[in-house]
Specification:
Layout (H helix, E strand, L loop, with lengths): L1 E5 L9 H15 L3 E5 L6 E4 L2 E7 L3 H11 L3 E4 L4 H12 L4 E4 L4 H9 L3 H13 L3 E4 L2 H9 L5 E3 L22 E5 L8 H5 L6 E5 L5 H7 L4 E4 L3 H9 L3 E4 L8 H8 L4 E3 L5 H4 L6 E3 L3 H8 L4 H8 L4 H28 L10
Parallel strand pairs: 1-2, 1-5, 5-6, 6-7, 7-8, 9-10, 9-12, 10-11, 12-13, 13-14
Antiparallel strand pairs: 3-4
Helix pairs in contact: 1-14, 4-5, 10-13
C-alpha cells in the first residue's frame, strides 16, 4: 500500500508536523506501508511573509499531476492547508479521489495575532477545506470537541508518540544546579514565549530553538539563556538538564515537546488549554494553571520517575497504526461508495489528461 502525504511543512523546517510524518513513515515502513511526501521543495517556492524560514510552494499543476500520476498512491492524506494542500485537494476532488486531512495548526488564531484577520473568516475557509475530505484527523479530544462545535465534520482521533529511547533522564546539568525552567520550540510570537520569560522565578530560564522572534527576545531578556536550535542527543540533554518545562502557548493543537519533556522526566507547567489539558495529568506529570508562575513553582516538587512513566504510554507505533486505520476506514469506504455511484452514472468520470 502506498500513501502520499501532501504537506506545506517539510525540511528544512523543524516542527511537530515534520517530526510527526517522519516518524510515522518509519513505523509504517515496518508494517509494509510506503509513505511518500509531496513538499514545497518540489515546486518553485517563496518565503512566507514574516517567517522567512518557511517556504511556500508556487502552484504548479503540471508538476503536481505528473507526480501523482507517476506515483499512483492508494491513498492521499493532506497534512496542511497551504498551497500544496489546496492543490492536492483540487486534484483529488476533480478526479473523485477520496482523501483525508489533518488539523495541525490553529491558523485562525495565528492570523488574527499576526495580521488582525478575524478568526471567523479563517475558520470558515478551513471548514470548507476540510469538509471536502473523507475524514479529519485531530490529535486531542478537546480539539475534536472544539472543531465539531464549529461545524467541522467527520473528525477522527489521531494521537502522537515520543521516542523514549532518545528522550530519557540523563545525568547531565548543562545549565547549572539551581532550578532550571526550560522552553523548547519555535521562537515565534504565537508561542507566547514572553509570558514565560517575564515570570518572576528563581534559578535560570532557558529557551531552546530558533525562529523569527529569537533576536528580539534575546535583546529584551539578557538574563535568559538562548541556546539556538538543538537536535537529537544535544536536544535530549537540554531537556534532561531542566527541572521544569514551561509551556506558555495557548494555540498549539498538541505540543509534542510536552511528551519529550515528560519522557525526559521533566514535569510540565502550562495553561489549562487544548494540548496540555489532554496530555498532562495534574499533580502527577505537571501543573496546569492560569498563573504560569504558580504552576512552575508547584511542578518543582513532582516525582520525575512518575512523569517519565506516563510518557511511556505514548507509542509511535500506536500512532502510526491509528493513522493507517483512519485512512483505511475513511478512504476505502468512501472509494467503494464512489465506485457504486459511478456505476449508477451519478458521478461523472473525470476526463483523462
Amino acid at each position: 500500500m502506498r500513501i502520499l502525504v501532501a504537506t506545506d511543512a517539510w525540511h528544512p523546517q523543524v516542527n511537530g508536523v515534520v517530526r510527526t510524518y517522519e516518524r510515522v513513515a518509519q513505523e509504517l515502513k515496518a508494517l509494509g506501508i510506503e509513505l511518500s511526501v509531496l513538499a514545497p521543495h518540489e515546486f518553485r517556492n517563496v518565503a512566507c511573509p514574516t517567517y522567512s524560514e518557511i517556504r511556500l510552494a508556487v502552484p504548479g499543476w503540471r508538476r503536481l499531476t505528473q507526480r501523482l500520476l507517476a506515483e499512483k498512491p492508494d491513498a492521499v492524506h493532506i497534512a496542511t492547508e497551504g498551497p500544496i494542500g489546496w492543490m492536492a485537494r483540487s486534484y483529488c476532488r476533480a478526479r473523485a479521489i477520496p482523501f483525508t486531512t489533518s488539523f495541525h495548526t490553529r491558523f485562525p488564531e495565528y492570523l488574527a495575532q499576526r495580521f488582525a484577520i478575524p478568526t471567523s473568516w479563517t475558520t470558515a475557509v478551513l471548514r470548507r477545506f476540510h469538509s471536502a475530505g473523507s475524514g479529519l484527523m485531530v490529535a486531542t479530544p478537546s480539539l475534536a470537541r472544539e472543531l465539531e462545535a464549529q461545524g467541522f465534520a467527520r473528525v477522527m482521533p489521531w494521537t502522537r508518540g515520543v521516542d523514549t529511547e532518545l528522550f530519557r533522564p540523563r545525568p547531565v546539568r548543562h545549565f547549572g544546579g539551581g532550578p532550571v525552567f526550560i522552553y523548547v520550540g519555535r521562537i515565534a510570537a504565537e508561542k507566547s514565549i514572553e509570558a514565560f520569560l517575564a515570570l518572576d522565578l528563581p534559578g535560570r530560564k532557558v529557551v531552546v530553538g530558533g525562529g523569527p522572534q529569537l533576536a528580539e527576545l534575546k535583546a529584551r531578556y539578557p538574563d535568559a539563556l538562548f541556546t539556538g536550535k538543538k537536535t537529537d542527543a544535544a536536544l535530549a540533554e537540554c531537556y534532561a538538564s531542566a527541572d521544569v518545562f514551561v509551556f506558555p502557548s495557548r494555540t498549539d493543537t498538541f505540543g509534542m515537546v510536552l511528551l519529550e519533556a515528560m519522557a525526559s522526566g521533566v514535569p510540565i507547567a502550562a495553561l489549562p488549554v487544548t494540548g496540555p489539558k489532554d496530555i498532562v495529568t495534574p499533580g502527577e506529570t505537571g501543573v496546569l494553571s492560569e498563573s504560569l508562575r504558580e504552576a512552575a513553582l508547584a511542578a518543582l516538587s513532582l516525582d520525575r520517575a512518575r512523569v517519565r512513566a506516563k510518557a511511556l504510554e505514548f507509542s509511535w507505533e500506536n500512532a502510526a497504526r491509528l493513522f493507517l486505520a483512519n485512512i483505511t476506514s475513511a478512504c476505502f469506504k468512501e472509494s467503494a461508495r464512489t465506485q457504486k455511484l459511478r456505476a449508477l452514472r451519478l458521478v461523472k468520470t473525470p476526463r483523462r489528461h
